[in-house]
Write a structure and sequence with these properties.
Elements (H helix, E strand, L loop, with lengths): L1 H7 L10 E4 L5 E3 L21 E3 L1
Antiparallel strand pairs: 1-2, 1-3
Length: about 55
């Protein structure tokens, strides 16, 4: 039954990933922003994907 526990174990939060910050409002996007469509907008201020800076 070990496989059941593997499925529900907490994820390791220390795994490094990409972090982008909106240069207008400071919204933090964690993940691969390149995977988002070209018309992606910041959910807080509505600015285009191009204003995000990789941290």
């Amino acid at each position: 039954m070990k496989y059941m526990y593997d499925k529900y174990e907490p994820k390791d939060e220390t795994v490094p990933g990409k972090v982008y910050v909106c240069s207008v409002c400071g919204f933090v996007y964690e993940g691969d922003l390149d995977a988002e469509p070209d018309d992606y907008k910041c959910p807080l201020c509505g600015c285009a994907k191009g204003v995000f800076k990789l941290q």
